[in-house]
TrEMBL record:
Record's protein name: HTH-type transcriptional regulator
Signal peptide start and end residues: none
Domain of life: Bacteria
HTH marR-type domain mapped to chain residues: 20-78
Family affiliation: Belongs to the GbsR family.
Lineage: Bacteria, Pseudomonadati, Pseudomonadota, Alphaproteobacteria, Caulobacterales
Keywords: DNA-binding, Transcription, Transcription regulation
């Protein structure tokens, strides 16, 4: 494996750990992303020095996230794997998976808490009730924004990202007030 690829695979594995992803899973995803041809589980295990069972479990997890897929190779009955190489698709799939596992349950819990709060309940102060409602409004707005962004073409999103703080300046120009302060 070329040194540059090895460094990225190792670093991606470290980052995966920081993001709550198993190091092996992240390393395998990086290796497949940087591979020009599909790899077998045996190829992956040998290249990364991982146990075959670890590779098998990691491949299943990556398939669950839809970050890799099996591809047939003529003349070889073994399973070969290839990574999603479209960076927007990768980011979208990760965001969708994390939202479903982490954000959606939180939104449901906040909604349940707000519904469960009795306006006349003396155990909960008006300030706490107000904070719960603000929290609900915030997560609902962010969730709505996320859903809208799924329909925005990647090229448009990249233009918005490249604009950076210019977007805030544009909003001031059209009369939208900044509420961050």
């Amino acid at each position: 494996m070329p040194l540059a690829v090895e460094q990225i695979v190792l670093r991606w594995g470290d980052l995966g750990g920081q993001w709550g992803v198993n190091r092996s899973v992240a390393q395998i995803q990086a290796l497949l992303y940087l591979s020009e041809k599909p790899l077998t589980a045996e190829d992956i295990a040998a290249t990364l020095g991982l146990a075959r069972s670890n590779v098998s479990n990691s491949l299943k997890e990556l398939q669950t996230w839809k970050l890799i897929h099996r591809v047939p190779v003529l003349g070889d009955r073994r399973d070969h794997y290839q990574a999603e190489t479209d960076l927007w698709q990768m980011a979208t799939k990760v965001a969708q998976g994390r939202k479903a596992r982490e954000i959606d349950p939180m939104v449901a819990a906040i909604n349940d808490a707000v519904v469960g709060v009795n306006e006349n309940d003396s155990d909960i102060s008006p300030e706490v009730k107000a904070r719960l409602k603000r929290m609900q409004a915030f997560v609902t707005t962010v969730d709505d924004w996320y859903q809208q962004m799924l329909d925005v073409p990647p090229e448009t999103l990249m233009r918005l990202i490249r604009m950076g703080s210019k977007v805030a300046s544009l909003l001031k120009f059209v009369g939208v007030k900044d509420r961050s302060g």
